[in-house]
C-alpha cells in the first residue's frame, strides 16, 4: 500500500479495505492488521455460527463470521468472530451496524483488546443485547447482557441469546 497521511478517514479506510489483500481493523483513524487464528479458534467460532444459523433464519436475522465488518459510527470497524443482525432492510454490502449479538473468541494476542477496547465500543451500540466472549482455555463464556441499568457481566457454560430466543451451551461450541 502507498504511504498515507494518518489519521485516515473512515471513507478512505473502507475504500482501501475493499481492495486490500490483508484484513485490517480501523480505530479512530488508525489501521491494525489482523493476526491469523488457530484451528481451535476457527472451529469454535464455526460451531457457534452453525448453532445460531437456524434460529436466525427463522427470525429473519443474518449470521456472519469473521469476514464481515462491523462499523461503529465513524470511530471503529472490527471483524467480529461471529455476529447476528436482526435489523430490517438490506445490509450494506461490506459492513453491518446494528448487531444484537457479537461474539469474540479469545486468544492471547487479542484478549485484552476484546475485554476492554472492543467491549467499550460494542456496548455503545443501541442494538446490542449480548456481547459474548469465549474462553478457549477454560471452555466457558463471559457475557455482557444489556439490562435497564447497563451491561451486566455473567460467566458460565450457557448464554441466553434474547434476539434468537436461544440458549447457547459451551459444550456445543467446543464439540470438536
Automatic annotation (TrEMBL):
Chain ranges of the Putative restriction endonuclease domain: 11-151
CDD domains registered for this protein in UniProt: DUF820-like
Pfam family, one: Uma2
Key words, A-Z: Endonuclease, Hydrolase, Nuclease
Keyword Nuclease: yes
Record's keyword annotation contains S-adenosyl-L-methionine: no
One function term, GO molecular function aspect: endonuclease activity
UniProt xrefs under PANTHER family: GLR1098 PROTEIN (PTHR36558), RESTRICTION ENDONUCLEASE DOMAIN-CONTAINING PROTEIN-RELATED (PTHR36558:SF1)
Protein name as catalogued: Uma2 family endonuclease
Originating organism: Thermus tengchongensis
Amino acid at each position: 500500500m502507498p504511504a498515507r497521511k494518518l489519521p485516515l478517514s473512515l471513507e478512505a479506510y473502507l475504500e482501501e479495505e475493499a481492495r486490500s489483500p490483508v484484513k485490517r481493523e480501523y480505530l479512530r483513524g488508525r489501521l491494525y492488521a489482523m493476526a491469523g487464528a488457530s484451528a481451535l479458534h476457527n472451529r469454535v467460532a464455526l460451531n457457534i455460527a452453525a448453532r445460531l444459523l437456524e434460529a436466525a433464519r427463522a427470525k429473519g436475522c443474518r449470521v456472519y463470521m469473521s469476514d464481515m465488518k462491523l462499523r461503529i459510527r465513524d470511530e471503529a470497524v472490527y471483524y467480529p468472530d461471529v455476529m447476528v443482525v436482526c435489523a430490517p432492510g438490506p445490509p450494506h454490502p461490506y459492513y453491518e451496524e446494528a448487531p444484537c449479538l457479537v461474539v469474540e473468541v479469545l486468544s492471547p494476542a487479542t484478549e485484552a483488546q476484546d475485554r476492554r477496547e472492543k467491549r467499550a465500543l460494542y456496548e455503545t451500540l443501541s442494538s446490542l443485547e449480548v456481547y459474548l466472549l469465549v474462553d478457549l482455555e477454560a471452555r466457558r463464556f463471559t457475557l455482557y447482557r444489556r439490562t435497564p441499568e447497563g451491561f451486566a457481566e455473567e460467566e458460565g457454560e450457557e448464554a441466553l441469546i434474547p434476539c434468537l430466543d436461544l440458549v447457547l451451551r459451551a459444550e456445543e461450541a467446543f464439540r470438536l
